[in-house]
């Protein structure tokens, strides 16, 4: 490397202009972007997790006619949803299954004997004009059959158990489960249909 005219650095193969003012602007923008990311992260931690938790685990209770048992939210509604799934946020150092079982104990005093892990389900937030609009969230999903024991349980105050057609739940056309679109609901429907057929044979 050799130095040429002021403001220039000459390499054997490449020559470029060293612009001190451009470097300063770059560093300013870089710092501004990092700061913005920090603000967004803090906002996500302090606010976003209240409305759309980043790490959640839920369970779908189903019967052999492809109906789902869900929550009638009432005063527990967070984003205008009428219904919700049983489950909730995954706490630090807690597995998804531990979270689901803990939530079911808190909400229903119920510990299912059969709890199948389905996988990660995705949902896209549909809130035009909101900073959340278009963002994708995910959760750990478990499946469990509706049992007589489950039907006899009592829900938390201001919530009730209700059974709805599975198709209505997964389509969420009227945003009854909140302003979200279940992205991989078609795969869930196929998988759950296979499970139900197997259960019927048993």
If you had to describe this structure to a student in words, what would you say it looks like?
The chain is of the alpha+beta class. It has two domains: 40 residues, no CATH class; 150 residues, Alpha-Beta Complex (Nucleoside Triphosphate Pyrophosphohydrolase). Strands 4, 5, 6, 7, 8, 9, 10 and 11 form an eight-stranded mixed β-sheet that branches. The protein has a three-stranded antiparallel β-sheet with strand order 1-2-3, with no helix packed on it. Strand 4 and strand 5 form a beta hairpin. The chain is globular and about 70 Å long. It starts with a strand and ends with a helix. About 15% of the residues have low confidence. It comes from Candidatus Woesebacteria bacterium GW2011_GWB1_38_8. It holds the Pfam family NUDIX. Keywords: Hydrolase.
Number of strands: 11
**CATH architecture descriptor text of the largest domain:** Alpha-Beta Complex
Mean of pLDDT: 78
Shape: globular
CATH fold-level label of the largest domain: Nucleoside Triphosphate Pyrophosphohydrolase
Instruction: Give me the CATH superfamily of the largest domain.
Output: Nucleoside Triphosphate Pyrophosphohydrolase
Give the tally of structural domains.
2
- Structural class comes to alpha+beta
Low-confidence stretches: 5-18, 31-47
End-to-end C-alpha gap: 78 Å
CATH class of the largest domain: Alpha Beta
Largest sheet descriptor: 8 strands, mixed
- Continuous helix count: 5
Strand content: 25-35%
Q: How much helix is in the residues?
A: 25-40%
Keywords: Hydrolase
Pfam families: NUDIX (PF00293)
GO molecular function: hydrolase activity
Organism: Candidatus Woesebacteria bacterium GW2011_GWB1_38_8
């Amino acid at each position: 490397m050799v130095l040429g005219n002021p403001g220039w650095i000459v390499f054997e193969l490449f020559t470029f202009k060293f612009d001190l003012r451009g470097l300063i602007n770059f560093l300013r923008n870089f710092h501004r972007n990092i700061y913005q990311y920090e603000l967004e992260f803090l906002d996500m931690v302090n606010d976003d997790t209240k409305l759309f938790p980043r790490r959640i685990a839920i369970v779908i209770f189903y019967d052999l006619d492809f109906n789902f048992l869900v929550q009638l939210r009432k005063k527990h509604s967070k984003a205008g949803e009428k219904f919700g799934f049983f489950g909730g946020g995954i706490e630090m150092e807690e597995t998804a299954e531990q979270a689901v079982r803990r939530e079911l104990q808190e909400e229903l005093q119920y510990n299912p004997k059969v709890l199948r892990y389905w996988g990660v389900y995705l949902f896209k937030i549909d809130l035009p004009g909101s900073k959340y609009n278009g963002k994708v969230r995910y959760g750990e999903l478990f499946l469990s059959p509706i049992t007589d024991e489950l039907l006899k349980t009592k829900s938390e105050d201001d919530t009730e158990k209700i059974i709805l057609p599975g198709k209505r739940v997964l389509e969420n056309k009227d945003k009854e489960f909140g302003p979200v679109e279940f992205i991989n609901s078609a795969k869930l429907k196929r998988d759950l249909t296979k499970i139900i057929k197997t259960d019927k044979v048993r």
